């Protein structure tokens, strides 16, 4: 194989890395024969062996890196190995992997690929793997690792020549065989990486010298050697270190563990997902606890039914348990309204406070418990490691329709809020996949829609409300998949890229982490109440209170006076000492109050009808009439563009009557005239149409295209209308 070095030979520097005992030396000797040079790595006593070979017009120099299990800074061997890769930037890096010991060897591989470079993965000891009954899908593994995968049996010289051919191919880049793979570390860690990485990329003395993401991850791992690197090189050293400290502190708070451990767990999670996808076990079976559970939870047949069951339980709990504290808050708000009503005289200010602010904001605040419970359940799913399994299970479904698991992660995040979910699509490398995922994400029902569901489902479906809410979330997922499929077939043609789901080990969630998640949610929710929802409620109140109809106001005052007069007369005519006087008097007073309250309600309704918002509502009514909605629901849907909670605020203001403490749900049932079918159609509309302005802004920002943003709004409204109409039509068949 070796030949004479020619003048025109191109020089290729190849580093060989791998775990100890993976067969590195054996393969190195096979390739270079006797042409070896033994020395020391500069400054240390670790042996450095170089060898070279001339092959097909290339002069290849091979450097045998020290064998290591990891690339942390724990030993000098590890530091030498990784410094050679990031500092010397060899043309090609070969990672020798013991195929019979994949999981452990891949831990090193995964850390290597994070540093970037052209990698070839040599699965040595292929004979041992075969003996164990492992069936390894090289092509899949290659696509996940971002470089070609070869099999060798080093001690018998099998597959060695193929390595040399592959080195040339990769070096010449004839085929785009290598690409950068980023391991996704999960939301929390990714957020912190996102906080650190731009600072590194912005540093003129670091940028381009070291891969910025790798540095960010290493700093989060508290890697002492990388710390020194940054300290020596960075211009803005202080700023970076400060951010790293903040990020590490934040992560420690959430995970109750050192970030480096969490990162290691995620890497093992990545590997475990990778193995699930690309290696089939023959006879040989592992008896690991997590894998035992996974046998059931990610089972080909049981996986999806179990996922559906868990989500169903989640919404049952969200609705049923949530309704208890919800009633307490509702009572509190009713009392607040009553107190304000007692202090402030009748008039505009009172109406603004009670109908506008207490009604509008209070109407939404009651759903805080539901939202907290939802996030409690979601964080349990996340922290136990089940969420990754859910994505893994759905990954198969996603592949069928031409998307992959990473898209589903962003979809699951959409259950919380579409805005960060849309931003999370940045981890998708393929632009088409990314845009497609962004476009379907709003169909994932975010937590802002929950108040509308709880209100309407509670009012019209009683004990079946939990099922109704569950059906909406499920409908959202199904539609997202179908629409994704449709778009994939028409506007965004292409194949899905290979992707590995991280499967972290199962763990028992810590109370602290769950509470932090809920607390963060509560703060966000309450802040939204104090800003968007408050302002929205005031604007809606204003639009529904003006212009004032003076004539009608006078007429109303007269009718109230007439009732007062009539009852005063009737009370006077009661003989004070007639039997049952007290009871009679009370009955009359109650009757009078009832009549006046009805009248007040009627007045409100008439005022709203003739107000600005009423006019707008009647203007758009024809659009919603086929769906069985009144103009009030139409207005609520329009204001809901701002944020979905505003739908509740609007209904609360529009249906406000004389009685402050009547439950909104009961009022809707009594006065809206909606049938249960129309109510469900309304919920379907709320599910599907544009979630909120913030989501639109996120779509615009992430796609950088107004056309796509408008397209997103357009298709969602059209789909919402069509689906709601379908509900009404189908409903009509059964009722
Ligand atoms: P290093 O520590 O990575 O340099 O590993 P070595 O090259 O020293 O190999 C360790 C042992 O594995 C030696 O006894 C080799 O003969 C043996 N070995 C190397 N490659 C293979 C292989 O493909 N199959 C088998 N069965 N043994 C191998
Ligand atoms: Mg060796």
Tell me what the structure shows:
The structure is a single chain. By secondary structure, this protein is an alpha/beta fold. It contains 32 helices and nine strands. The strands form two sheets. It has a seven-stranded mixed β-sheet, with helices on both faces. A two-stranded antiparallel sheet has the order 7-9. Strand 5, helix 3 (102-114) and strand 6 (119-124) form a beta-alpha-beta unit. Helix 30 packs antiparallel against helix 32 (706-734). The longest helix is centred in the last third of the chain and has 35 residues, at 511-545. The radius of gyration is 33 Å and the shape is elongated. It starts with 9 loop residues before the first strand and ends with a helix. Mean pLDDT is 84; it is low at 1-5 and 283-287. Magnesium ion binds next to helix 1.
Key phrases:
single chain, alpha/beta, two-stranded antiparallel ribbon, 32 helices, 9 strands, disordered N terminus, binds guanosine-5'-diphosphate, binds magnesium ion
Compile the SSE list and pairings.
Layout: E1 10-18, H1 24-32, E2 36-40, E3 47-55, E4 58-64, H2 76-88, E5 92-98, H3 102-114, E6 119-124, H4 126-131, E7 134-136, H5 138-145, E8 149-151, H6 160-172, H7 187-201, H8 212-220, H9 224-233, H10 237-255, H11 259-278, E9 279-281, H12 289-297, H13 303-320, H14 323-343, H15 348-365, H16 368-384, H17 386-400, H18 405-414, H19 418-423, H20 431-440, H21 450-461, H22 465-489, H23 511-545, H24 550-573, H25 581-610, H26 612-624, H27 631-639, H28 645-654, H29 664-671, H30 676-688, H31 693-703, H32 706-734
Parallel strand pairs: 1-4, 1-5, 5-6, 6-8
Antiparallel strand pairs: 2-3, 3-4, 7-9
Helix pairs in contact: 3-11, 5-11, 7-8, 7-10, 13-16, 13-22, 14-15, 15-23, 15-28, 16-23, 17-18, 18-20, 20-22, 21-22, 21-29, 21-30, 22-30, 23-28, 24-25, 26-27, 27-28, 30-32, 31-32
């Amino acid at each position: 194989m070796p030949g004479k070095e020619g003048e025109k030979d191109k020089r290729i520097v190849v580093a060989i890395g791998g775990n100890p005992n993976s067969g590195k030396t054996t393969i190195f000797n096979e390739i270079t024969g006797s042409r070896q040079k033994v020395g020391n790595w500069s400054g240390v006593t670790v042996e450095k062996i170089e060898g070279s070979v001339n092959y097909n017009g290339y002069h290849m120099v091979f450097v045998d890196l020290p064998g290591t299990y990891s690339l942390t800074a724990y030993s000098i061997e590890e530091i030498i190995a990784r410094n050679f890769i990031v500092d010397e930037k060899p043309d090609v890096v070969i990672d020798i992997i013991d195929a019979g010991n994949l999981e452990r060897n891949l831990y090193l591989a995964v850390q290597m690929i994070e540093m970037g470079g052209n990698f070839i993965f040599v699965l040595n000891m292929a004979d041992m793997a075969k003996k164990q009954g492992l069936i390894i899908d090289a092509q899949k593994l290659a696509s996940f690792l971002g470089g070609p995968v070869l099999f060798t049996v080093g001690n018998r010289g099998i597959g060695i020549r193929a390595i040399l051919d592959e080195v040339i191919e990769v070096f010449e880049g004839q085929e785009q065989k290598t690409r950068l793979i980023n391991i996704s570390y999960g939301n929390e860690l990714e957020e912190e990486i996102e906080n650190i990485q731009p600072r590194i990329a912005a540093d003129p003395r670091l940028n381009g010298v070291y891969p910025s993401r790798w540095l960010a991850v290493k700093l989060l791992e508290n890697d002492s050697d990388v710390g020194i690197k940054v300290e020596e090189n960075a211009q803005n050293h202080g700023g970076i270190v400060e951010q790293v400290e903040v990020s590490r502190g934040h992560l420690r708070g959430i995970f109750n563990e050192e970030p480096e451990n969490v990162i290691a767990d995620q890497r093992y999670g990545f590997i475990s997902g990778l193995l699930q996808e690309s290696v089939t076990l023959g006879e040989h079976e592992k008896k690991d606890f997590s894998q035992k559970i996974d046998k059931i939870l990610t089972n080909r047949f049981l996986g999806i039914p179990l996922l559906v069951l868990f989500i169903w339980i989640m919404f049952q709990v969200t609705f049923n348990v949530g309704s208890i504290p919800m009633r307490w808050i509702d009572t509190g708000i009713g009392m607040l309204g009553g107190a304000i009503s007692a202090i402030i005289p009748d008039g505009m200010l009172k109406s603004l406070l009670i109908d506008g602010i207490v009604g509008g904001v209070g109407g939404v605040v009651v759903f805080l418990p539901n939202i907290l419970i939802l996030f409690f359940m979601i964080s349990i799913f996340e922290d136990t490691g089940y969420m990754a399994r859910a994505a893994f299970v759905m990954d198969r479904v996603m592949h069928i329709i031409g998307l992959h698991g990473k898209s589903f992660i962003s979809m699951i995040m959409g259950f919380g809020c579409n805005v960060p979910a849309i931003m999370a699509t940045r981890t998708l490398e393929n632009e088409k996949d990314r845009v497609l995922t962004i476009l379907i994400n709003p169909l994932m029902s975010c937590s802002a829609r929950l108040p509308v569901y709880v209100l309407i489902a509670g009012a019209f479906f009683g004990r079946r409300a939990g099922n109704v809410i569950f059906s909406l979330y499920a409908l959202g997922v199904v539609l997202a998949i179908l629409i994704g499929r449709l778009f994939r077939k028409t506007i965004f043609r292409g194949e899905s890229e290979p992707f590995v789901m991280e499967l972290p080990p199962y763990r028992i969630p810590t109370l602290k982490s769950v509470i932090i998640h809920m607390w963060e949610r509560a703060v966000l929710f309450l802040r939204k109440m104090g800003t968007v929802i408050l302002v929205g409620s005031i604007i809606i109140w204003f639009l529904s209170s003006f212009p004032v109809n003076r004539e009608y106001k006078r007429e109303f005052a007269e009718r109230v006076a007439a009732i007062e007069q009539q009852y005063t007369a009737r009370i006077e005519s009661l003989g004070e000492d007639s039997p049952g006087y007290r009871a009679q008097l009370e009955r009359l007073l109650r009757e009078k109050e009832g009549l006046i309250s009805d009248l007040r309600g009627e007045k409100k309704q008439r005022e709203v009808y003739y107000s600005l918002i009423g006019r707008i509502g009647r203007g758009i009514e024809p659009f919603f009439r086929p769906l069985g909605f009144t103009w009030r629901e139409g207005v609520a849907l329009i204001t809901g563009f701002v944020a979905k909670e505003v739908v509740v605020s609007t209904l609360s203001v529009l249906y406000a009557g004389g009685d402050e403490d009547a439950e909104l749900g009961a009022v809707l049932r009594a006065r809206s005239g909606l049938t249960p079918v129309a109510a469900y159609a309304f919920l379907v509309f709320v599910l599907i149409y544009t979630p909120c302005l913030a989501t639109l802004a996120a779509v615009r920002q992430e796609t950088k295209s107004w056309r796509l943003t408008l397209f997103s709004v357009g298709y969602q409204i059209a789909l919402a209308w069509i689906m709601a109409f379908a509900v009404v039509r189908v409903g009509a068949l059964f009722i």
